[in-house]
Amino acid sequence: MTNVGTPRRLPPTPFNHDYGPDSSIARGGEAPILVCLLGSFRLLKRGQPVPLHGGGKMESLLCTLGLRRDRGIPREQLLQTLWPDGADLALAGQSLNSLVYSLHRLLRDGNGGAKPVVSGDGYYRLNFEAGIGLDVLSFDALAAAGDQRDRSGDEPSAIASYARAVGLYRGDLCVGTDLAAVMERERLRALYLRLLARLADANYRAGDYTACLDYAQRLLASDPVREDAHRLAMLSHLRLGQRAQALRQYRLCEHALRTEFDADPEPATRELFDRLRLDPGRL
């Protein structure tokens, strides 16, 4: 994240999937059937929440398949995940068939009759090819598309993709307690924080200090000890004529670091604070 720059206005903001910014995967947030695992579980049909019944098994099915989105899950492993209490596999198999059928009946009018869950070669997976959307997959696709555009030198398009990605991130991954799920949750969270930092930095350089402050504060809400975000927030407050708030931002940074790490701010942060106090006109 940079602290200063020449203002430049920005425009408004395994499967072999196409991860381009206009691909069906990147548009997953617009899918007629959308499975959401970021923040809290939601199942949407044409934008409206779908109530689920059956003791939570349908939600568990969708969550399990969402976590295994790239490769699917073997039938036997899926049975053990949904019925971990040693249920008879034959009875569990019948229950799984009934569960998949009930899900299809529940959603068929929202996606042209396509099955939301498909199976083949002993594996079950979400039917992305038929337009089923997954917020995690769309988030990853938009971030990857932004990185691709950024590497090609098209920063405005990259920033637009990043902004769409963070718009999908309603919170950390809400499902899974095993090591793989925890690692996936941390991966997604780290990616989200990186995109927020990139957006804050780009908007500061573009001279949109209100947007920069918003992204910096969202970053700090998830990671209060990010000093680069604190510095950008301080500078944005100053550019918006809020010098007193810029000084308070330093105290917030100081408090967060002492509470979390019993540490003092970095020299760059202390230097910025001194300049805000003594000579803000030169910033």
Q: What is this structure's SSE topology?
A:
Elements: E1 33-36, E2 42-45, E3 48-49, H1 57-67, E4 73-74, H2 75-82, H3 89-107, E5 117-120, E6 123-126, E7 132-134, H4 135-151, H5 155-168, H6 179-205, H7 209-222, H8 227-239, H9 243-261, H10 267-278
Level-2 CATH architecture of the largest domain: Orthogonal Bundle
> What is the chain-wise order of helices and strands?
EEEHEHHEEEHHHHHHH
Largest sheet: 4 strands, mixed
Cα Rg: 23 Å
- CATH class annotation of the largest domain: Mainly Alpha
Q: Strand tally, please?
A: 7
- The CATH superfamily of the largest domain appears as Winged helix-like DNA-binding domain superfamily/Winged helix DNA-binding domain
Termini separation comes to: 17 Å
Q: Provide the β-strand percentage band.
A: 5-15%
* The number of domains: 2
What structural category arises from helix and sheet content? alpha+beta
Strand order of the largest sheet: 3-2-1-7
Query: Which term fits the overall shape?
Result: elongated
The low-confidence runs, each spanning 5 or more residues with pLDDT under 50, are 3-21
Describe this entry's structure for a reader.
It is a single chain. This protein is an alpha+beta fold. The chain has two domains: 1-208, Orthogonal Bundle (Arc Repressor Mutant, subunit A), CATH 1.10.10; 224-283, no CATH class. Helices cover 54% and strands 8% of the residues. The chain has ten helices and seven strands. The chain has helices at residues 57-67, 75-82, 89-107, 135-151, 155-168, 179-205, 209-222, 227-239, 243-261, 267-278, and strands at residues 33-36, 42-45, 48-49, 73-74, 117-120, 123-126, 132-134. Strands 3-2-1-7 form a four-stranded mixed sheet. Strands 4-6-5 form a three-stranded antiparallel sheet. Strand 5 and strand 6 form a beta hairpin. Helix 8 packs antiparallel against helix 9. It is elongated, with a radius of gyration of 23 Å. The two termini are 17 Å apart. Residues 3-21 have low confidence and may be disordered.
